[in-house]
Design goal:
The chain is about 25% helix and about 20% strand. By secondary structure, the protein is of the alpha+beta class.
């Protein structure tokens, strides 16, 4: 490669898998063209960041964002496009960088929806949540099966021709968040899940296991405590603002990682009189479910400490 400053077209051809490796990020598992990573943007235990090596595109299921190396690099390094191109040029001069051949024009557009049909999740069947492997997974997450069965289904799906099952949490557009001990993903279309319980207040959760944790903690209380919104991706927070602000009070129970704290601060800045940060309830833990899991190490739940008590 010549020593002139890389242009955007050059940068987009840099192999994302190789570039991530240079940054110290390596795939936890690989399924054909899909390389799954722990997200470079936050702390997590289950890989939710995917790079399709053939398309040379990434998608972060935690935020709903994706794209090419330019979009990744500016987010990762917190820099402008010119600053990224300068960084990449210096990197190319001092180390080996592999470049991919240009893709056919019909595959160049960024986004999860451009994956090959074989790489898309196809829902085969949905039924009552009874598979023992999924019930065992719920037990590990400290969620009683009867709580999960009220809002989740057992989803049988196909991915790359392989049949799998997962706990399926439906969204309002007909898609599912899919979780098992071996799988984390979602079927199209991705959207929020909204439970309108005809109350004046709403609790907002990042993921559905936190919603299930809230239901578990407050299972002995007379429902409904509040309406509930599960974002299923932080990317839906801002676009859900009109829905949330129909309520008098908005209780934020987002993750306590960097992304969750950033979005919590953003919402509080919109209207500190309406939005309330409830994450101090599970301070010292990543999220509400992480707090609930750790309660198994204690003789019993502290009955005087209930998240719903202050809602």
């Amino acid at each position: 490669m010549e020593s002139h400053t890389l242009c955007c077209q050059d940068a987009k051809r840099i192999d994302l898998v190789d570039y991530l490796a240079q940054l110290g990020h390596h795939p936890r598992h690989i399924r054909r063209d899909d390389h799954w990573y722990l997200s470079p943007f936050r702390e997590e235990k289950t890989p939710s960041f995917k790079v399709n090596k053939r398309l040379n595109l990434w998608f972060d299921h935690g935020t709903g964002k994706g794209g090419d190396l330019i979009e990744f690099g500016t987010l990762y390094h917190h820099c402008t496009i010119p600053e990224l191109l300068e960084r990449l040029t210096l990197n190319a001069a001092s180390s080996f960088i592999s470049f991919q051949q240009p893709l056919p024009s019909e595959l160049q557009a960024a986004g999860e929806r451009k994956d090959s049909p074989a790489g898309r999740i196809e829902i085969v069947d949905t039924r009552t949540l009874v598979a023992q492997s999924l019930l065992d997974y719920l037990t590990k997450r400290n969620i009683p099966p009867d709580i999960a069965q009220k809002s989740c289904q057992e989803v049988h799906f196909s991915l790359y021709g392989k049949k799998q099952i997962a706990i399926g949490f439906p969204n309002r557009s007909g898609g599912y968040e899919l979780r098992s001990e071996q799988f984390k993903g979602s079927s199209s279309p991705k959207d929020i899940s909204f439970f309108d319980n005809r109350t004046n207040e709403i609790a907002v959760f990042e993921g559905f296991f936190n919603y299930l944790s809230f239901q578990t903690i407050n299972r002995d209380k007379q429902p409904p405590l509040t309406s509930c919104l599960v974002l299923n991706s932080l990317a839906f927070l801002e676009r859900s603002r009109p829905l949330m602000e129909q309520f008098n009070r908005i209780h934020l129970a987002l993750d306590r990682d960097d992304a969750g704290r950033t979005f919590t601060r953003k919402a509080l800045a919109w209207n500190p009189d309406k939005y309330i940060d409830r994450s101090e309830f599970y301070q010292g833990h990543k999220d509400l479910n992480d707090w609930l899991i750790h309660q198994r190490m204690r003789p019993k739940l502290n009955r005087d400490r209930r998240m719903g008590r202050s809602l």
